[in-house]
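Handout, section 4.2: multi-component inputs.
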Amino acid sequence: MGIFWVFAGAGSTLTALLAIPALSGPAHAQTPDISGTYWASEYHPKIQIVGGGDLPLTPAGKAAYEKNMAGLKDGSITDTARKFCVPDGLPRVLATPYPFEIIQAPPGQVTIIHELNHQVRVVAMGKPMPTVRELTTFPFYNGHSVGHFEGDTLVIHTAGFNEKTFIDATGAPHTDEMTTLERIRRINPTQIEDVITIHDPQYYSRDWQARFVYNLRNDVRLEDYVCGEPHRDLSSVAGVRRP
Amino acid sequence: MGSMFIATNAIRASLVVTLSAATAGAGLAAPPNQSPIPNFAPNSHTSWALDQTIDDLLPPSSGPGPITFDPAHPYIPNFRGAQPTYRVADLTNPILQPWVRERMRHANDEVLAGKVPFRARERCWPIGVPGFVIYSLIEGFYFLQTPHKVTIINPGGPEVRQILMNVPHSADPKPSWYGESVGHYEGDDTLVIDTIGITDKTFVDNYRTPHTTKLHVVERLKLIEDGSRVQISVMVDDPGAFTIPWSATQRWRRMDRGPLSEAPCNENNANYFQKYGVPTPTADRPDF
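Output:
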C-alpha cells in the first residue's frame, strides 16, 4: 500500500522527485527528470516551421486550409478550442501562451497538464502504440501518445487524432491520419524545448518540424481555467493580443 | 439563541483546533520523509469511482450532516428501477442559515415547477470543494503523487485539483474554483487536504447548497480494505452560510479500467430545447 519517495540524480533541487513503487528496482532512479511547470515567453498564432518558409501543403491541404480560413473569417467554422475550450490538439497546444506542468506520475506515465482549457495529455511510457482499430475507434483531440527516453530526451509518438482541431490558430489543417513525433529535452537548467515533427502526407508534401521553447517556472501555480472567464495576465508572453 | 451561538462557537473553536491539528507539522516545506505513504496511484490504470453510484455527500454516523433530499420528494437516481427524479433539498436541515435556506427554497420551487436543476458535471462547470469528491458518477478520479504535490484529475471535464503538500496556506488566497488546497499524509493510509479560498460561485453539493468565501473544508481520504476502497470524510465550516460546522462521508472504489483518457465535457453538452437553465462555459470572444 505504501510508497517511498526516491531521489534520482543530484545537483538540482528540481532533480528527480519521482514517485516509484517501493519494490521497484534501482533502474527507475535513472529516469531523466523533466518535471516542472513551464511557460513560454512568446506566442505565434501562425505556426513557425523549422527552417522558415510556408507550410508544405499538398493541393488537398491547400484547399482545406483555404476553406478553414474562409470559414473562420465568415463564422461558418467555429474555433471550438477557443469558443468551447475543448482541447487544442497537436501541435497547436504546444503554442499555448499559458503555463503547463509536466508530471512524471503515476508510474509508467508522463502527464502534461495545461492551464489552457485544463487539457491533460497522457503519455504511456514504454508502451506500444494502440492498434489502428483502437485509434480509429477512439480518436482524441490530443491523440494517443506513447513515449520513452533516449538519453535525456523524452520522445513522444502520437497518433489517433480526431479532425476537430487545427494545426494553429490560423486554421492550418490536418487529417485524422496525422502522426507526430516530439523530442522534449532540457536545453539549459531553466529551459526545455519540444521539437515536433508532423507527418500527414495527405495534406503535407513532406514531414516538417516546429520548435517550442519553454521557461522553467516552478514559481507559478497553474490556475483554474473556465471558458469565457478572465484569466491570468499574459503580458509577459510576447505576441499575445487579447481582444 | 445566545446559548446556541455559544455552543456553535464552541464547536467552531474545536473545529479550528482540529483543522489546525490537521495541518500541524506541515508548516515547513520539509523534505519528503522515507516513511511509507498511502499510494493512490500504484499504476497508471488505477482510478477511483463512487462506490455507491450516488453523487451525494452522505450523512455522518452522528452529528450535523449534509443536505439530503426532502422526504416528501425522494431523490431517485438513474438505474434504480423507478422513475428517476431531480433533487429537492431538505430545507429543515438545521445547518442552513436563513439566507441559504431561502435561496435553496427558490431552487426547490424551480425543480417542482418542472425545471431541470443545475448539476456542475452536467453543465461542465467546476464543482468546487467539497463537491469534487462526488463530481462524477462514472469517470474515475486519477491521482498523480509527487513529494510536493498531489494532483487529482477527473477526466469528465476534465477537472483538475492541485494539493500542495507539507506547506501552510498563503495569507489571503484569491478565491478560485477549487480554492487553495494544502495537504499532508497521516500514516501510510490517509491523505488530509485542507482547503480555503473557494469562490462562492460553486455549490457545496448537488443539492445547490450555496456557500461564502469563508468556506473551509478538511477532507480525509483513507485507504481501506486492502487498498480497494477510499473512505472519505469531509468536515465543512462556513460561518457565512452554515449555523454550525458539519461533516459528511463518501466512499470510492478502486477501478483498474485503464489510464486517464480524453473526455472533454463541453464537447457533447448541447442545450437541446433550452432545458437547462445554465449554459455550459462558452467564450464569446477568443481568450487570446
